[in-house]
Amino acid sequence: NAGIKPEDIDYINMHGTATPLGDIGETKAIKSIFGEHAYKMNLSSTKSMTGHLLGAAGAIEGIASCLAIKNDIIPPTINFETPDPECDLNYTFNKAEERTVNIAMSNAFGFGGHNTTVLFKKYEE
């Protein structure tokens, strides 16, 4: 009920814990929701830079998403070495990337099925 279309989203800060099942599952979910647009967005996981902050992870990743909007810079997933053929989207690996980010989405998945997705939009006067 955010009043936007899936193709309006420019960036997803993925939950991305670097577990095979988790990353593949999240990738498949993004593909099923976004279709071809899934390949046009930038995706990354800032957990690669902070570690898993457990209860604070969602808040910190929300801040990273807001900074991506403010600065038009996609934060990278760092320390990436080995591609997984099942994770074939437009991931931002090892180096930040400049891109206009008007709308960012942040996924936070918790233990026991406590999951949320939050959208952030660039302020327009």
Describe this structure in words.
The structure is a single chain. By secondary structure, this protein is an alpha/beta fold. The protein has helices spanning 20-34, 47-50, 57-71; strands at residues 11-13, 42-44, 73-74, 97-98, 103-109, 115-121. The protein has a four-stranded mixed sheet with strand order 2-1-5-6, covered by helices on one side. A two-stranded antiparallel ribbon has the order 3-4. The protein is globular. The model has no long low-confidence stretch (mean pLDDT 94).
CATH superfamily: Thiolase/Chalcone synthase
CATH architecture: 3-Layer(aba) Sandwich
Spatial order of strands in the largest sheet: 2-1-5-6
Order of helices and strands: EHEHHEEEE
Strand content: 15-25%
* Structural class estimated from helices and strands: alpha/beta
| CATH class type | Alpha Beta
Number of DSSP strand runs: 6
Low-confidence stretches: none
Helix content: 25-40%
Please tell me what the overall shape is. globular
